[in-house]
Amino acid sequence: MKPKKMIVAGIMSGTSADGMDVALCSIGPSAAGKPRVKLIGASEFPYPQAVRQIVLAAMDAKSMPVADLSRLHWRLGELYAEAVQNTARLYGTRVDLVGSHGQTIYHQGVASKYLGSETRCTWQIGEASVIAEKLSIPVVSDFRPADLAAGGQGAPLVPMLDYVLFRSEKISRVLQNLGGIANMTAIPAGATTDDVLAFDSGPSNMVIDACMARLFNKPFDRNGAVARRGIVYPKVLERFLADPYFSTLPPKSCGREDFGEAFVERFISVSRRLKARDEDIVATATALTARSILDAYQKFVWSHLGQKAPLARHVEYVVGGGGVRNPSLMAMLRDGLEPLGVKVRSTDEFGIPTQAKEAVAFALLAWLTWHGLSGNVPSATGAARSVILGRITRA
Protein backbone atom coordinates (compact mmCIF):
# COMPACT_ATOMS: atom_id res chain seq x y z
CA MET A 1 0.00 0.00 0.00
CA LYS A 2 1.38 3.38 -1.01
CA PRO A 3 1.87 5.50 2.14
CA LYS A 4 -0.67 8.30 2.48
CA LYS A 5 -1.40 11.09 4.91
CA MET A 6 -3.73 10.10 7.74
CA ILE A 7 -5.04 11.44 11.04
CA VAL A 8 -3.98 8.87 13.64
CA ALA A 9 -4.87 8.72 17.33
CA GLY A 10 -2.25 7.12 19.58
CA ILE A 11 -3.32 5.83 23.01
CA MET A 12 -0.83 5.07 25.76
CA SER A 13 -1.38 3.80 29.28
CA GLY A 14 1.93 3.10 30.97
CA THR A 15 3.33 1.21 33.92
CA SER A 16 2.32 3.99 36.33
CA ALA A 17 -1.27 2.92 35.58
CA ASP A 18 -2.52 6.41 36.32
CA GLY A 19 -4.55 6.82 33.15
CA MET A 20 -4.57 7.26 29.38
CA ASP A 21 -2.71 9.70 27.14
CA VAL A 22 -4.19 10.35 23.70
CA ALA A 23 -2.31 12.12 20.89
CA LEU A 24 -3.92 13.13 17.60
CA CYS A 25 -1.34 13.28 14.84
CA SER A 26 -1.21 14.06 11.15
CA ILE A 27 1.22 11.51 9.67
CA GLY A 28 2.29 11.15 6.07
CA PRO A 29 5.24 10.42 3.79
CA SER A 30 7.93 13.00 3.10
CA ALA A 31 10.53 13.60 0.42
CA ALA A 32 13.25 12.87 2.99
CA GLY A 33 12.09 9.27 3.27
CA LYS A 34 11.09 9.44 6.94
CA PRO A 35 7.43 9.88 7.89
CA ARG A 36 6.34 13.44 8.65
CA VAL A 37 4.65 13.59 12.06
CA LYS A 38 2.70 16.63 13.21
CA LEU A 39 0.93 16.74 16.57
CA ILE A 40 -2.60 18.16 16.30
CA GLY A 41 -3.43 17.94 20.00
CA ALA A 42 -3.20 15.74 23.09
CA SER A 43 -5.32 14.94 26.13
CA GLU A 44 -4.89 13.11 29.43
CA PHE A 45 -7.60 10.99 31.04
CA PRO A 46 -7.08 9.58 34.54
CA TYR A 47 -8.37 6.10 35.21
CA PRO A 48 -11.39 6.01 37.52
CA GLN A 49 -10.04 5.06 40.95
CA ALA A 50 -11.72 1.65 40.96
CA VAL A 51 -10.24 0.86 37.52
CA ARG A 52 -6.74 1.90 38.61
CA GLN A 53 -6.92 -0.31 41.68
CA ILE A 54 -7.85 -3.34 39.57
CA VAL A 55 -5.16 -2.54 36.98
CA LEU A 56 -2.50 -2.32 39.69
CA ALA A 57 -3.77 -5.54 41.25
CA ALA A 58 -3.59 -7.28 37.88
CA MET A 59 -0.01 -6.07 37.30
CA ASP A 60 1.32 -7.16 40.68
CA ALA A 61 -0.92 -10.12 41.43
CA LYS A 62 0.42 -13.64 41.69
CA SER A 63 -3.08 -14.82 40.90
CA MET A 64 -6.30 -13.19 39.76
CA PRO A 65 -9.51 -14.79 38.49
CA VAL A 66 -9.50 -15.20 34.73
CA ALA A 67 -12.99 -13.68 34.68
CA ASP A 68 -11.68 -10.45 36.23
CA LEU A 69 -8.83 -10.22 33.73
CA SER A 70 -11.24 -10.73 30.85
CA ARG A 71 -13.67 -8.12 32.17
CA LEU A 72 -10.85 -5.62 32.68
CA HIS A 73 -9.62 -6.28 29.12
CA TRP A 74 -13.03 -5.32 27.72
CA ARG A 75 -13.62 -2.41 30.12
CA LEU A 76 -10.31 -0.82 29.12
CA GLY A 77 -11.34 -1.10 25.47
CA GLU A 78 -14.42 0.99 26.31
CA LEU A 79 -12.35 3.58 28.18
CA TYR A 80 -9.83 3.87 25.34
CA ALA A 81 -12.61 4.41 22.81
CA GLU A 82 -14.18 7.13 24.96
CA ALA A 83 -10.80 8.85 25.38
CA VAL A 84 -10.20 8.96 21.60
CA GLN A 85 -13.75 10.12 20.95
CA ASN A 86 -13.48 12.95 23.49
CA THR A 87 -10.11 14.08 22.19
CA ALA A 88 -11.27 14.12 18.56
CA ARG A 89 -14.30 16.14 19.60
CA LEU A 90 -12.13 18.57 21.58
CA TYR A 91 -9.89 19.29 18.58
CA GLY A 92 -12.66 19.10 15.99
CA THR A 93 -11.03 16.53 13.76
CA ARG A 94 -11.81 13.18 12.22
CA VAL A 95 -9.67 10.13 13.02
CA ASP A 96 -8.68 7.64 10.30
CA LEU A 97 -6.76 5.13 12.41
CA VAL A 98 -6.10 4.32 16.07
CA GLY A 99 -2.89 2.93 17.56
CA SER A 100 -3.60 1.44 20.99
CA HIS A 101 -0.67 0.27 23.07
CA GLY A 102 -2.95 -1.20 25.74
CA GLN A 103 -2.18 -1.68 29.41
CA THR A 104 0.78 -3.93 30.11
CA ILE A 105 -0.05 -6.37 32.86
CA TYR A 106 2.94 -8.66 32.33
CA HIS A 107 6.19 -8.32 30.41
CA GLN A 108 9.08 -10.78 30.40
CA GLY A 109 11.72 -9.89 27.83
CA VAL A 110 14.27 -12.42 29.09
CA ALA A 111 13.58 -16.12 28.61
CA SER A 112 13.01 -18.47 31.51
CA LYS A 113 12.09 -22.16 31.65
CA TYR A 114 8.35 -22.83 31.41
CA LEU A 115 6.71 -26.19 30.63
CA GLY A 116 9.98 -27.54 29.30
CA SER A 117 10.84 -24.62 27.02
CA GLU A 118 12.69 -21.32 27.27
CA THR A 119 9.86 -18.80 27.12
CA ARG A 120 9.55 -15.03 26.81
CA CYS A 121 6.22 -13.25 26.77
CA THR A 122 4.33 -9.99 27.00
CA TRP A 123 0.66 -9.12 27.54
CA GLN A 124 -1.13 -5.83 26.93
CA ILE A 125 -4.89 -5.65 27.47
CA GLY A 126 -7.66 -3.36 26.17
CA GLU A 127 -9.90 -5.04 23.60
CA ALA A 128 -9.26 -3.52 20.16
CA SER A 129 -12.56 -4.83 18.76
CA VAL A 130 -14.44 -2.67 21.24
CA ILE A 131 -12.48 0.43 20.16
CA ALA A 132 -13.00 -0.29 16.47
CA GLU A 133 -16.71 -0.94 16.91
CA LYS A 134 -17.38 2.16 19.02
CA LEU A 135 -15.39 4.48 16.75
CA SER A 136 -16.12 2.79 13.39
CA ILE A 137 -12.45 3.02 12.40
CA PRO A 138 -9.60 0.45 12.25
CA VAL A 139 -7.34 -0.11 15.24
CA VAL A 140 -3.76 -1.34 15.44
CA SER A 141 -2.91 -3.05 18.74
CA ASP A 142 -0.61 -5.74 20.23
CA PHE A 143 2.55 -3.98 19.06
CA ARG A 144 5.10 -5.87 21.17
CA PRO A 145 4.67 -9.60 20.34
CA ALA A 146 6.08 -9.44 16.78
CA ASP A 147 9.39 -8.03 18.01
CA LEU A 148 9.48 -10.57 20.85
CA ALA A 149 8.84 -13.42 18.40
CA ALA A 150 11.75 -12.14 16.27
CA GLY A 151 14.12 -12.51 19.22
CA GLY A 152 13.79 -9.00 20.64
CA GLN A 153 12.75 -7.81 24.07
CA GLY A 154 9.50 -6.36 22.73
CA ALA A 155 10.68 -3.04 24.18
CA PRO A 156 11.47 -0.26 23.91
CA LEU A 157 9.39 0.63 20.84
CA VAL A 158 9.46 4.42 21.17
CA PRO A 159 12.94 4.66 19.52
CA MET A 160 11.35 4.71 16.05
CA LEU A 161 9.63 8.00 16.91
CA ASP A 162 12.81 9.26 18.59
CA TYR A 163 14.73 8.62 15.39
CA VAL A 164 12.09 10.20 13.14
CA LEU A 165 11.71 13.37 15.23
CA PHE A 166 15.03 13.95 16.96
CA ARG A 167 17.85 12.64 14.76
CA SER A 168 20.35 15.38 13.83
CA GLU A 169 23.34 15.48 11.54
CA LYS A 170 25.39 17.54 14.00
CA ILE A 171 23.97 16.95 17.49
CA SER A 172 23.89 13.69 19.42
CA ARG A 173 20.73 13.34 21.47
CA VAL A 174 19.55 11.15 24.31
CA LEU A 175 15.77 10.90 24.63
CA GLN A 176 14.85 10.14 28.23
CA ASN A 177 11.32 9.09 29.11
CA LEU A 178 10.32 9.39 32.76
CA GLY A 179 7.18 7.28 32.96
CA GLY A 180 6.63 4.45 35.41
CA ILE A 181 9.81 2.98 33.93
CA ALA A 182 12.75 5.11 32.77
CA ASN A 183 13.82 4.38 29.21
CA MET A 184 16.43 6.12 27.10
CA THR A 185 17.26 6.30 23.42
CA ALA A 186 20.75 7.36 22.33
CA ILE A 187 21.02 8.73 18.78
CA PRO A 188 24.55 9.69 17.69
CA ALA A 189 24.93 12.62 15.33
CA GLY A 190 24.37 11.50 11.74
CA ALA A 191 23.04 8.13 12.89
CA THR A 192 21.22 5.52 10.86
CA THR A 193 18.65 3.34 12.64
CA ASP A 194 21.40 0.73 13.10
CA ASP A 195 23.29 3.22 15.29
CA VAL A 196 20.41 3.74 17.73
CA LEU A 197 20.86 2.38 21.26
CA ALA A 198 17.79 2.18 23.51
CA PHE A 199 16.84 0.36 26.70
CA ASP A 200 15.01 0.62 30.01
CA SER A 201 17.41 1.92 32.67
CA GLY A 202 15.13 0.95 35.58
CA PRO A 203 12.31 2.55 37.56
CA SER A 204 11.31 6.19 37.09
CA ASN A 205 8.08 7.19 38.83
CA MET A 206 7.08 3.65 39.73
CA VAL A 207 8.97 3.25 43.01
CA ILE A 208 8.44 6.89 44.03
CA ASP A 209 4.68 6.64 43.45
CA ALA A 210 4.43 3.34 45.33
CA CYS A 211 6.28 4.81 48.31
CA MET A 212 3.97 7.82 48.28
CA ALA A 213 0.91 5.56 48.18
CA ARG A 214 2.08 3.39 51.07
CA LEU A 215 3.56 6.09 53.29
CA PHE A 216 1.43 9.16 52.54
CA ASN A 217 -1.72 7.71 50.92
CA LYS A 218 -1.13 9.91 47.88
CA PRO A 219 -0.72 8.79 44.25
CA PHE A 220 2.52 10.72 43.59
CA ASP A 221 4.93 13.29 45.01
CA ARG A 222 3.37 16.52 43.74
CA ASN A 223 6.10 18.97 42.69
CA GLY A 224 8.68 16.74 44.40
CA ALA A 225 7.76 18.41 47.69
CA VAL A 226 8.11 15.33 49.92
CA ALA A 227 11.50 14.38 48.43
CA ARG A 228 12.67 17.96 48.96
CA ARG A 229 11.99 17.64 52.71
CA GLY A 230 13.82 14.34 52.97
CA ILE A 231 17.41 13.17 53.19
CA VAL A 232 18.91 10.61 50.81
CA TYR A 233 20.27 7.53 52.57
CA PRO A 234 23.44 6.47 50.67
CA LYS A 235 23.54 2.97 52.19
CA VAL A 236 20.02 2.22 50.98
CA LEU A 237 20.81 3.70 47.59
CA GLU A 238 23.97 1.64 47.08
CA ARG A 239 22.30 -1.57 48.24
CA PHE A 240 19.50 -1.31 45.71
CA LEU A 241 21.71 -0.04 42.89
CA ALA A 242 23.52 -3.37 43.28
CA ASP A 243 20.45 -5.07 41.78
CA PRO A 244 21.74 -7.11 38.81
CA TYR A 245 19.37 -5.37 36.39
CA PHE A 246 21.30 -2.11 36.57
CA SER A 247 24.57 -3.69 35.44
CA THR A 248 23.01 -5.89 32.73
CA LEU A 249 24.10 -4.85 29.26
CA PRO A 250 21.50 -3.53 26.80
CA PRO A 251 19.26 -4.49 25.10
CA LYS A 252 17.10 -4.88 28.20
CA SER A 253 13.62 -4.02 29.41
CA CYS A 254 11.84 -4.12 32.75
CA GLY A 255 8.52 -3.44 34.45
CA ARG A 256 6.53 -4.11 37.59
CA GLU A 257 7.81 -7.68 37.54
CA ASP A 258 11.21 -6.19 38.48
CA PHE A 259 10.38 -3.00 40.40
CA GLY A 260 6.81 -3.49 41.60
CA GLU A 261 5.29 -4.23 44.99
CA ALA A 262 7.87 -6.76 46.17
CA PHE A 263 10.78 -4.42 45.34
CA VAL A 264 9.07 -1.48 47.10
CA GLU A 265 8.36 -3.56 50.18
CA ARG A 266 12.05 -4.45 50.49
CA PHE A 267 13.05 -0.84 49.82
CA ILE A 268 10.85 0.52 52.59
CA SER A 269 11.84 -2.26 55.00
CA VAL A 270 15.58 -1.69 54.55
CA SER A 271 15.14 2.09 54.85
CA ARG A 272 13.18 1.78 58.09
CA ARG A 273 15.80 -0.50 59.63
CA LEU A 274 18.23 2.40 59.15
CA LYS A 275 15.74 4.75 60.90
CA ALA A 276 14.80 6.66 57.74
CA ARG A 277 11.74 8.86 58.06
CA ASP A 278 8.96 8.56 55.52
CA GLU A 279 10.11 11.66 53.62
CA ASP A 280 13.66 10.26 53.61
CA ILE A 281 12.38 7.09 51.96
CA VAL A 282 10.72 9.13 49.19
CA ALA A 283 13.88 11.23 48.75
CA THR A 284 15.98 8.05 48.48
CA ALA A 285 13.53 6.52 46.00
CA THR A 286 13.82 9.68 43.89
CA ALA A 287 17.61 9.44 44.09
CA LEU A 288 17.40 5.78 43.03
CA THR A 289 15.68 6.86 39.82
CA ALA A 290 18.18 9.66 39.16
CA ARG A 291 21.28 7.61 39.98
CA SER A 292 20.21 4.59 37.93
CA ILE A 293 19.65 6.88 34.94
CA LEU A 294 22.97 8.69 35.39
CA ASP A 295 24.84 5.43 35.90
CA ALA A 296 23.28 3.97 32.75
CA TYR A 297 24.25 7.07 30.79
CA GLN A 298 27.88 6.81 31.88
CA LYS A 299 28.14 3.00 31.60
CA PHE A 300 26.35 2.41 28.32
CA VAL A 301 25.44 5.60 26.48
CA TRP A 302 28.40 7.94 26.59
CA SER A 303 30.79 5.49 24.95
CA HIS A 304 28.15 4.81 22.29
CA LEU A 305 27.79 8.51 21.53
CA GLY A 306 31.53 8.98 21.73
CA GLN A 307 31.98 6.98 18.54
CA LYS A 308 30.54 9.93 16.63
CA ALA A 309 30.35 12.75 19.19
CA PRO A 310 33.52 12.91 21.29
CA LEU A 311 32.68 16.38 22.64
CA ALA A 312 30.06 16.56 25.38
CA ARG A 313 28.95 19.99 24.26
CA HIS A 314 27.43 18.32 21.21
CA VAL A 315 25.06 16.20 23.35
CA GLU A 316 21.49 17.16 24.22
CA TYR A 317 19.49 15.26 26.82
CA VAL A 318 15.79 15.61 25.91
CA VAL A 319 13.44 14.59 28.71
CA GLY A 320 9.74 13.70 28.53
CA GLY A 321 7.15 11.83 30.57
CA GLY A 322 5.37 12.52 33.84
CA GLY A 323 8.61 12.68 35.84
CA VAL A 324 9.42 16.03 34.20
CA ARG A 325 6.82 17.48 36.58
CA ASN A 326 8.91 16.42 39.58
CA PRO A 327 11.41 19.27 40.20
CA SER A 328 13.33 17.23 42.77
CA LEU A 329 13.99 14.45 40.26
CA MET A 330 14.83 16.90 37.48
CA ALA A 331 17.28 18.78 39.76
CA MET A 332 19.09 15.51 40.53
CA LEU A 333 19.37 14.72 36.83
CA ARG A 334 20.63 18.20 35.94
CA ASP A 335 23.16 18.08 38.80
CA GLY A 336 24.56 14.87 37.32
CA LEU A 337 24.45 15.78 33.63
CA GLU A 338 25.30 19.46 33.34
CA PRO A 339 28.82 19.12 34.86
CA LEU A 340 29.49 16.71 31.98
CA GLY A 341 28.63 19.48 29.53
CA VAL A 342 25.36 17.81 28.55
CA LYS A 343 22.49 20.21 27.81
CA VAL A 344 19.18 19.15 29.40
CA ARG A 345 16.08 20.02 27.37
CA SER A 346 12.39 19.09 27.36
CA THR A 347 10.34 17.53 24.57
CA ASP A 348 8.09 20.60 24.93
CA GLU A 349 10.85 22.61 23.26
CA PHE A 350 10.40 20.40 20.18
CA GLY A 351 6.61 20.79 20.08
CA ILE A 352 5.79 17.49 21.84
CA PRO A 353 4.21 17.88 25.32
CA THR A 354 6.17 15.82 27.84
CA GLN A 355 3.21 13.61 28.70
CA ALA A 356 2.20 12.98 25.07
CA LYS A 357 5.36 11.56 23.50
CA GLU A 358 4.63 7.87 23.97
CA ALA A 359 1.10 8.31 22.63
CA VAL A 360 2.58 10.04 19.57
CA ALA A 361 4.95 7.09 19.21
CA PHE A 362 2.11 4.57 18.98
CA ALA A 363 0.28 6.76 16.49
CA LEU A 364 3.38 6.59 14.30
CA LEU A 365 3.76 2.83 14.79
CA ALA A 366 0.11 2.33 13.84
CA TRP A 367 0.63 4.36 10.65
CA LEU A 368 3.67 2.24 9.76
CA THR A 369 1.78 -1.00 10.40
CA TRP A 370 -1.20 0.13 8.30
CA HIS A 371 1.16 0.69 5.37
CA GLY A 372 3.02 -2.59 5.83
CA LEU A 373 6.19 -0.93 7.12
CA SER A 374 8.38 -2.18 9.97
CA GLY A 375 8.28 -0.28 13.25
CA ASN A 376 10.84 -1.83 15.57
CA VAL A 377 14.49 -0.77 15.83
CA PRO A 378 16.44 -4.05 16.14
CA SER A 379 19.52 -2.35 17.60
CA ALA A 380 17.28 -1.17 20.45
CA THR A 381 15.20 -4.29 21.13
CA GLY A 382 17.72 -6.97 20.16
CA ALA A 383 15.42 -8.46 17.50
CA ALA A 384 17.02 -10.46 14.70
CA ARG A 385 15.31 -8.33 12.06
CA SER A 386 12.94 -5.47 11.38
CA VAL A 387 9.29 -6.54 11.63
CA ILE A 388 5.82 -5.13 11.09
CA LEU A 389 4.33 -4.59 14.53
CA GLY A 390 0.84 -5.30 15.78
CA ARG A 391 -2.42 -6.58 14.43
CA ILE A 392 -5.14 -4.65 12.63
CA THR A 393 -8.74 -4.84 13.80
CA ARG A 394 -11.15 -3.41 11.24
CA ALA A 395 -14.44 -1.74 12.07
Q: What tags apply to this protein structure?
A:
Nucleotidyltransferase, domain 5; 2 domains; 12 strands; alpha/beta; 395 residues; 5-stranded mixed sheet; single chain; 7-stranded mixed sheet
CATH class descriptor of the largest domain:
Alpha Beta
Number of domains: 2
Structural class: alpha/beta
Radius of gyration: 20 Å
Q: What is the name of the CATH topology of the largest domain?
A: Nucleotidyltransferase, domain 5
Distance between the termini: 19 Å
- In N-to-C order, the SSE pattern is EEEHHEEHEHHEEEHHHHHHHEHEHHE
- Principal-axis shape equals globular
CATH homologous superfamily assignment of the largest domain: ATPase, nucleotide binding domain
**Quantity of strands, as a count:** 12
Please give the count of helices. 15
Proportion of residues in helical segments: 40-55%
Quick check: average pLDDT? 94
How would you portray this structure in words?
Strands 1, 2, 3, 4, 5, 6 and 12 form a seven-stranded mixed beta sheet that branches. Strands 9-8-7-10-11 form a five-stranded mixed beta sheet, sandwiched between helices. Helix 5 packs across helix 14. By secondary structure, the chain is of the alpha/beta class. About 1% of the residues have low confidence. It has two domains: 183 residues, ATPase, nucleotide binding domain (Nucleotidyltransferase, domain 5, 2-Layer Sandwich), CATH 3.30.420.40; 182 residues, ATPase, nucleotide binding domain (Nucleotidyltransferase, domain 5, 2-Layer Sandwich), CATH 3.30.420. The two termini are 19 Å apart.
Could you provide a short overview of the structure?
With 395 residues, the protein is of the alpha/beta class.
